[in-house]
Each structure stands twice: as C-alpha cells, then as structure tokens.
Automatic annotation (TrEMBL):
<dbReference type="Pfam" id="PF00793">
    <property type="entry name" value="DAHP_synth_1"/>
</dbReference>
<keyword id="KW-0963">Cytoplasm</keyword>
<dbReference type="GO" id="GO:0005737">
    <property type="term" value="C:cytoplasm"/>
</dbReference>
<comment type="similarity">
    <text>Belongs to the KdsA family.</text>
</comment>
<dbReference type="InterPro" id="IPR013785">
    <property type="entry name" value="Aldolase_TIM"/>
</dbReference>
<comment type="pathway">
    <text>Carbohydrate biosynthesis; 3-deoxy-D-manno-octulosonate biosynthesis; 3-deoxy-D-manno-octulosonate from D-ribulose 5-phosphate: step 2/3.</text>
</comment>
<keyword id="KW-0808">Transferase</keyword>
<dbReference type="GO" id="GO:0019294">
    <property type="term" value="P:keto-3-deoxy-D-manno-octulosonic acid biosynthetic process"/>
</dbReference>
<dbReference type="InterPro" id="IPR006218">
    <property type="entry name" value="DAHP1/KDSA"/>
</dbReference>
<keyword id="KW-0448">Lipopolysaccharide biosynthesis</keyword>
<dbReference type="InterPro" id="IPR006269">
    <property type="entry name" value="KDO8P_synthase"/>
</dbReference>
<comment type="pathway">
    <text>Bacterial outer membrane biogenesis; lipopolysaccharide biosynthesis.</text>
</comment>
<feature type="domain" description="DAHP synthetase I/KDSA">
    <location>
        <begin position="14"/>
        <end position="275"/>
    </location>
</feature>
<protein>
    <recommendedName>
        <fullName>2-dehydro-3-deoxyphosphooctonate aldolase</fullName>
        <ecNumber>2.5.1.55</ecNumber>
    </recommendedName>
</protein>
<dbReference type="GO" id="GO:0008676">
    <property type="term" value="F:3-deoxy-8-phosphooctulonate synthase activity"/>
</dbReference>
Length: 285
C-alpha cells in the first residue's frame, strides 16, 4: 500500500480527486467504430457509474495512429470524431476524452473535449503537451512503456510552465523484453511523490505488443488482478476500454473488457478503494 495519494484538487463537474476521494473512471470503446456503439456503451456506463456513484468520463479514439499494421482499422478521422464526441456530450451531458497525435488536432477539439489525452508513444512531445495545456483543459499523459516514472516530473513541469495545474499521468505498463509488458507497482508511489494524480490503464497494461503477429495481443484474464493491485496503491482514476463484444472489436480485441462484466468488477474495486484511502488518511493524520 502506498503511503500517500496526490493532493486533493478540483476535477470535473464539481468532483474532487486526490486525497481520500474515490477513484474516477475513464471508459469507452477503444476506437469509434460507429455511432450506435458509442451511444450504447456510454448509456450503459453512465447507468452503472450513477448507481455506484463513480465519476465518469467517456473515452473513444477518432484515430488510432499507432496501429501495428498499416491495414488495421484506424477510426473515422478527426472531423467525424468531433461530431461523434459532440453527439455523446450533448445527449448524455458527460465529460469526454480522446487522444490526439498532432498539435493540429488541438483547436478543432477545444470546444468539445474536457480532457486531452497524449498517447504513450508521444509522452515526451513537448509541443503536444504544452499546447494542450494552454487550452485550460485537463491533460492526461499516458506514461510511455519506455519511460521511468521519475521522468514524469518533466511532464508535470511542461504543463505547469504552460500555465496549467490540470495534469494526470496514466500508468499502462512498462516494456519487459520484446512483446511483453509488466505493471510495476512502484510507479504509483513514485508519481504520488511528485504530487501527480495517477490513473491506471487496466486494459492496455494487459497487452502483449506485437505478440499476435501483425497485431498486438493481450491477456484479458489478468485485468481484474492488475486493477485490484493498482487500486490497493491508492490511485486517483481507472482507465478501461470496454466493448459489448470484444472479440469482434476493430481494435484491441484481446484486451477490451466485456461491457457485461464491468459492473461486477467496479463493485469490488469500490470497497477496496475506500478501505485503502481511509487507511492512508489515518496514517497521515
């Protein structure tokens, strides 16, 4: 168990993160396959999170620019992606997040996004991070599989020097030889030592990069165990890609979590989260 969490701060829609506050959830289908899928997943996740009192942020990608194969489905593109996010936000009144790959993506998304997400492979791209921060929106930087957690302090500095305190870092596993990732639990207390709110990416941490030939493989069966471990360390948020039928998903079919199983897993995690953060609070008092 970590000795601390990030300091309490205001988040979205009046919620707070850090300190002893409950975790929030970022979830949605990996890529925007069609509007019906986005609508179905968002509606079910809102219902689940409302019942469990979990702050919810909808996520889906308009472009998966880092696919292993040039022939893999990437998404509908920026223009259609903006329309999809506007549709979800207007219909469900929910915060939305998507990943960007170029500074040219920032302005078209400014009026709809609540959180800009910087992909793991781009976590050291200064202009992408700084220009996102200058919008005044939250910036969620996925920690690269190659990046030491101590180096995330530079990410925080780039955002602060761009005039913002709205930063989150997402842990999504570290390279462990070729074709394998490992979740190093030391990452969470190290990031908390720099007062960085931590999100745990439960689904990408189960990936096996390149292990399925021309696509990324994964081990979905380990997701519950890993996310329990992360919650036991006092994380501020959880990231999960969810799909009604993961085997038929057009991206990350081996690691997206079944929509039908999300509620039962979250119910487990709530109790653990409350216990751990109360213990941390008691020790620090």
């Amino acid at each position: 168990m970590s000795d601390k969490t990030a300091q309490e701060r205001d988040f979205l829609n009046g919620t707070k993160i850090g300190g002893s506050n409950p975790f929030f959830l970022i979830a949605g289908p990996c890529v925007m396959e069609n509007k019906d899928l986005l609508e179905r997943v968002c509606a079910e996740m809102i219902e689940i999170c409302a019942e469990l009192k979990i702050p919810y942020v909808f996520k889906s990608s308009f472009d998966k620019a880092n696919r292993s194969s040039v022939h893999s489905y990437r998404g509908p593109g920026l223009e259609e992606g903006v329309k999809n996010l506007e549709f979800i936000k207007k219909k469900f009144n929910v915060p939305v997040l998507t990943d960007i790959h170029e500074t040219s993506h920032i302005a078209p998304l400014k009026d709809v996004l609540d959180i800009y997400q910087i992909p793991a492979f781009l976590c050291r791209q200064t202009d992408l991070i700084a220009e996102s921060a200058k919008t005044g929106k939250w910036v969620n930087v996925k920690k690269g599989q190659f990046l030491a957690p101590q180096d995330c302090r530079h990410i925080k500095t780039k955002i602060q020097e761009s005039g913002s305190e709205k930063y989150i870092v997402t842990e999504r596993g570290s390279s462990f030889g070729y074709g394998n990732l490992v979740f190093d639990g030391r990452t969470v207390p190290i990031l908390h030592g720099y007062d960085i709110p931590v999100v745990f990416d439960a689904t990408h941490s189960a990936q096996l990069p390149g292990a399925a030939g021309n696509i990324t493989g994964g081990q979905r069966e380990f997701i519950p165990s890993m996310v329990r471990s992360a919650v036991a360390l006092g994380i501020e948020g959880i990231f999960m890609e969810v799909h009604p039928d993961p085997a038929k998903a057009l991206s990350d079919a081996t690691t997206q979590y079944p929509l039908s199983e999300v509620k039962s897993l979250l119910k487990e995690l709530i109790g653990l989260d409350r216990y751990v953060k109360q213990e941390i609070l008691n020790r620090n008092n």
